[in-house]
Amino acid sequence: MTVTHSWTLPADTTAAAAGRDFVRSALAEYGHASYTSDTQDTEAAEVAAAVTSELCTNAILHGSPPQLLKFVIDREHLRIEVSNSNRVGGTAPKLATMPTNSDTVGGRGLNLVNVLSSTWGADVTSGSTTVWAVISRG
Q1: Which of 15, 98, 119, 122 has the greatest count of CB atoms below 10 A from its CB?
Q2: CATH label, 3-136, candidates 3.40.50.300, 1.10.150.120, 3.50.50.60, 3.30.565.10
């Protein structure tokens, strides 16, 4: 069974926390008690929350409202999509290359998404950008 949840993000600094709460709630609803008792699913939920947080933060920092969070759950995968309007055209996000000893704040979010997800990417059109990540549940 595949379940899809969509939600419009608040266009402010609360978006990341709200996105994490939304994803945790969607997973609890989908898996009922399993997301509180099964260690593997609990880990998947926390990974999904971390990835969601990064994607929501990037959408708020680099996109224009409205920003939409879409979460698709099935037996094998969790797919997180965050879409936003493009300010002027749009470009696909790229992984930052940063020195390991860098004290720079920011710029590491997509690297985290890259490590935590099975795969990720971006779909860019003239009017919107959707950044997505897939997390395996097994």
Answers
A1: 15
A2: 3.30.565.10
129-11-96-42 Cα dihedral, nearest 10 degrees: -100
Residues 42 and 53 sit within 8 Å (Cβ to Cβ):
no
Please tell me the pTM assigned to this model. 0.82
Residues ≥6 apart with Cβ < 8 Å to 138: 40, 76
Task: List Cβ neighbours of 125 (8 Å cut-off, separation of 6 or more).
Answer: 86, 90
* Digit-coded pLDDT (tens) for 87-102: 656 667 776 665 556 6
Give the DSSP letter string of 43-61.
HHHHHHHHHHHHHHHHHHH
Q: Please tell me the number of Cα atoms within 13 Å of 76 on its side-chain side.
A: 1
